[in-house]
Amino acid sequence: MKIVTLAGGVGAAKFLSGLVRVVPPEDLTVIVNTGDDFYWMGLYVCPDLDTLTYTLAGLANPQTGWGVRGDTFQALDRLKILGCDTWFRIGDIDLATHIYRTEQLHGGTSLTKITRHICQHNGILCRVLPMTDSSVPTLVHTDDGTLLFQDYFVRRHCEPSVIDFAFHGIEKAEPAAGVLEALESAQGIIICPSNPFISIGPILAVPGVREALRETPAKIVAITPIIAGESVKGPTAAIMENLGLKVSATSVATLYRDFLDVFVLDHRDRRLETEIAALGLKAHAARTLMDCEAARIELAKSVMELFP
Amino acid sequence: MKIVTLAGGVGAAKFLSGLVRVVPPEDLTVIVNTGDDFYWMGLYVCPDLDTLTYTLAGLANPQTGWGVRGDTFQALDRLKILGCDTWFRIGDIDLATHIYRTEQLHGGTSLTKITRHICQHNGILCRVLPMTDSSVPTLVHTDDGTLLFQDYFVRRHCEPSVIDFAFHGIEKAEPAAGVLEALESAQGIIICPSNPFISIGPILAVPGVREALRETPAKIVAITPIIAGESVKGPTAAIMENLGLKVSATSVATLYRDFLDVFVLDHRDRRLETEIAALGLKAHAARTLMDCEAARIELAKSVMELFP
User: Do B79 and A102 touch (CB under 8 A)?
Assistant: First the structure.
């Protein structure tokens, strides 16, 4: 059964590390947000792609959620001595990915091909696709001006209040090779438990993606990134508050209602099932907090049971 | 007394680390070969500049002569896993220099300014100037075709026989800001014990440099890189053999005879004094093997005594 997932960073990576234990990885395609990609000291960094590949390769740092387990920061410490900004923490092992990718990009290789190469050299068997090969940086319009995403997220710790998001140039971006084909031939589609605005939002904004989701005959299932009115990780809840939305799984389901079939709620949020039903969606309750490997696998199994 | 030196990598770095103990560093300008600079994985590496600055900053690895003491190779090991060539060994701390420099170069900052910044952030008080801000890669014409310098030197271990050298684009290169001024106002000039073909040769080939040396009233002293018919380090002797030259300090002196005043021989080569004199140069014998810090300081003192 061909499964396609839409994925952001840490939450998606956790879910997918469970999913590859339940679904044959060669049947799985992961379409990844690239809106928060950016140049760091001249090197092209793709935070979500890297979090996913490191996690699927078994290299991820479980404490931080980003970066490589056991990584060192010799280069970064030295850059600090040279007077460079070091608020974005890139380790020495991690650095190799960015050096490789940047050199390949400058040589004209697409991000899609580079990502495939990285996966192949890390023993990753599922197909990982960037949502697009174009650069479509997420701009965060805040009460303190417009910020690049990492500037908002890492340097400013999500403190400025969000007014709106924009994905610069997205109207001219094309889906990466394989993205639309994967969606069209999918037998099941899963929206990972990622931030709906800045992780899933950019993917849905790539021309053709949302339309493909609306038109596919495949069942589409989304997993909540909000549990009991709080985001498991990251700024999802804070952004919802900034935008004047109720911090609730239902608010996430509402954002996907035009294409979604099933919304997976946390079992603690069962009381929201009627709200979800009122959106015309099927609700499914499960343990969505992936605090250990067993929980990841359990959630993946529970989601996969939704497909015929 | 204003002293200007022409410098390559390891041999020059050893001598200069002694010289800064003898001469007030603020009176010292070092003009450095950039012919072996090259792009490595998209990062601009300047081997001689870095060997010098690491040595003067007290960071150099005394075992290898290149790189940083105690450096790790986490990024390089990871690049190997990603399928990249790793015959050029760049450590994690070293990497920071190249990342910083490349980003600055791409932003339009000159190599001269970047080098000044690196020196300032490493407590280096003498003035270190690249010979030029232009890229003038050393091409090695060999019996096995034309090779880029690092390809010949590191990857091929100097095995192909050298026919000739060329410094690509040097006829259009300009000396870096300060180079000609330093030479014109120098009260003493020292050619470091570096390879005359691939370290000092490129500096002399920068338009205006050799002419400035011929015309300066300052005394010019060169230190031999050849002791008792052997090069202390690196391929100087092998190159001399390839080119059909006698492997002798006298052959080096001959290459500089049009501008040189004094040639510093190793004390073991005193018998060559008459050959040096026959070139119209003054010979001076000294212990030139810098196998410890005391020897570096002694040699620097011995050379400085040659200036009035």
Answer: no
Enclosing H/E stretch for A88: none
- List chain B residues with CB under 8 Å of A42: 99, 102-103, 106
Which among B92, B96, B103 has the least Cβ separation from residue A72? Answer: B92
Q: What's the burial of A241, exposed, middle or buried (CB within 10 Å: 0-12/13-18/19+)? A: middle
The helix or strand, by DSSP H or E, that contains position A219, with its residue range, turns out to be strand A219-223
User: Read out DSSP for A268-279?
Assistant: GGGGGHHHHHHT
Taking the Cβ of residue A57 and every Cβ of chain B, the question of whether any pair is shorter than 8 Å is answered with no
- The tokens for B89 are 């060994």
b or e along A105-118 (b: 16 or more beta carbons within 10 Å of the residue's beta carbon)? beeeebbbebbbbb
Contact A82 B91 (CB under 8 A): no
> What is the pLDDT, as a whole number, of residue B20?
97
Please determine, for residue A35, whether its predicted confidence score (pLDDT) is greater than 90. Answer: yes
Of B191, B165, B170, B167, nearest to B243 (Cα)? Answer: B165
- Res B234 pLDDT > 90: no
Is A82 in contact with B97 (Cβ distance < 8 A)? yes
Measured between CA atoms, the residue of chain A closest to residue B105 is: A42
With beta carbons under 8 A apart, name residues in chain B contacting A76. 96
Domains and CATH numbers, chain A: 3-136+170-304 (3.40.50.10680)
Q: Are A131 and A203 in contact (CB under 8 A)?
A: yes
| Short-list A170, A164, A166, A145, CA closest to A156 | A145
B69 touches A: beta carbon within 8 Å: no
* Model confidence, pTM: 0.93
Give percent above pLDDT 70 in chain B.
100
For residue A269, CA distances in Å to A37, A139, A193, A200, B27 come to 33, 32, 15, 22, 74
Chain A residues with CB under 8 Å of B93 CB are 74-75, 77-78
Q: Hey, is the C-beta of B79 within 8 angstroms of any chain A C-beta?
A: yes
User: Where does the pLDDT of residue B100 fall: very low under 50, low under 70, confident under 90, or very high at 90 and above?
Assistant: very high
Chain B residues with CB under 8 Å of A92 CB are 72, 74-75, 78, 92, 95
Average pLDDT over residues B58-76: 92
User: What is the band of B64 on the pLDDT scale with cuts at 50, 70, 90?
Assistant: confident
Kindly provide the ipTM of the predicted complex, given to two decimals: 0.91
Q: Can you tell me the distance from the alpha carbon of A195 to that of A49, in angstroms, rounded to the nearest whole number?
A: 15
Q: Give residue-wise pLDDT tens across range A201-257.
A: 999 999 999 999 999 999 999 999 999 998 887 889 999 999 999 999 999 999 999
| Among the partner residues A79, A92, A99, nearest to B100 by beta-carbon distance | A79
Residue A137 pLDDT exceeds 90: yes
Q: B48 to chain A, minimum CA–CA distance in Å?
A: 19
Give the pLDDT confidence score for residue B184 in this predicted structure: 96
Q: What is the pLDDT of residue A286?
A: 97
Percent residues over pLDDT 90 in chain B: 93
Q: Are strands B127-130 and B219-223 parallel, antiparallel or unpaired?
A: unpaired
3-state helix, strand, coil in chain B (%, to 5): 40, 20, 40
In angstroms, the CA A41 to CA A46 distance is 13
